[in-house]
Design brief:
With 248 residues, the chain is α/β, with parallel strands linked by helices. It has a single domain, classed as TIM Barrel (Alpha-Beta Barrel), CATH 3.20.20.70. It is built from 11 helices and 8 strands. It has an 8-stranded parallel β-barrel, surrounded by 6 helices. Strand 6, helix 8 and strand 7 form a beta-alpha-beta unit. The protein is globular, with a radius of gyration of 17 Å. The N and C termini lie close together (7 Å). The chain binds cytidine-5'-monophosphate.
Length: 248
């Protein structure tokens, strides 16, 4: 991968409740990453103003709100996030096809009304902290985890979603499915959290891979949080990750 393209594949997760801490990471890391991820912790604490802080630095925003509700509620919540000019947004695939279709429709209408590009709409499959055992025993879903993720990915593809969130372990199956059914030219983002470089701790993540493995498996974007933000030297950590992506 070309050196100048590498950072476009990296999303740094700003998982903190503190605005000062988020701003510290944004200032420190903005030149090394394409995207920052604003998730529930930061958004519920600081609110939408943090999106403008990131955009003013020239970075893109992945708003990881993981919306799951009835079609009317999700579509209007996504429309509100379009007005905040986020670049990527996600909803749970388990919301069903009507929720996906209504959301996509209102998202496009709102972007047109605001005269801006619509964000990429991604489907959340199964959290990377969920194991096969949790899926089958606690959630009573009979399929194997990778089959279930693949099923949700195929619904995302047939409903014209822009991409999917999954673990790095399922990325290659999804890429193969997409290429076989829709061809290599069909753009479909495969965004994978659960990234753990060899030198980082696993924390609560269960289905993990290194940055290099994730990209080799077909991830188009990797989401990295604690391996960078909890490191003694976040700048060194992010540089090591960029080197790994470049060499993959
Ligand atoms: O710190 P860490 O690298 O584990 O952060 C991963 C980020 O990705 C977290 O912000 C988490 O909310 C998010 N995420 C995830 N699994 C998903 C979707 C998002 O871990 N399926």
């Amino acid at each position: 991968m070309k050196a100048n393209e590498v950072k476009d594949h990296l999303i740094i997760a700003l998982d903190t409740s503190s605005e000062d801490e988020a701003r510290k990471y944004i200032d420190l890391l903005s030149e090394y990453t394409g995207y920052f991820k604003v998730g529930l912790e930061l958004f519920t604490s600081v609110g939408p103003k943090i999106i403008k802080v990131i955009k003013d630095k020239g970075n893109k925003v992945f708003f990881d709100g993981k919306f799951l509700d009835i079609p009317n509620t999700v579509s209007h919540a996504v429309a509100n996030m379009v007005r905040h000019k986020v670049d990527m947004i996600n909803v749970y695939m388990s919301g069903g096809a009507v929720m996906l279709a209504e959301t996509k429709k209102l998202m496009f209408e709102t972007a047109k009304e605001c005269n801006i590009e619509p964000p990429s709409l991604l489907g959340v499959t199964v959290l990377t902290s969920i194991t096969n055992n949790i899926l089958q025993e606690d959630l009573k879903i009979k399929s194997q985890l990778d089959e279930y993720v693949l099923h949700l990915a195929s619904i995302a593809l047939s409903n014209n979603m822009d991409g999917i969130i999954c673990s790095p372990n399922e990325a290659s199956l999804i890429k193969t499915l997409k290429n076989e059914k829709y061809g290599a030219d069909r753009k479909f983002l495969i965004v994978t959290p659960g990234i753990r470089p060899k030198w980082a701790s696993a924390d609560d993540q269960k289905r993990t891979a290194t940055p290099k493995e994730a990209i080799q498996n077909g991830a188009t974007h990797i989401v990295v949080g604690r391996p960078v933000t909890a490191d003694k030297n976040p700048k060194d950590a992010i540089k090591k990750i960029l080197d790994e992506i470049e060499s993959s």
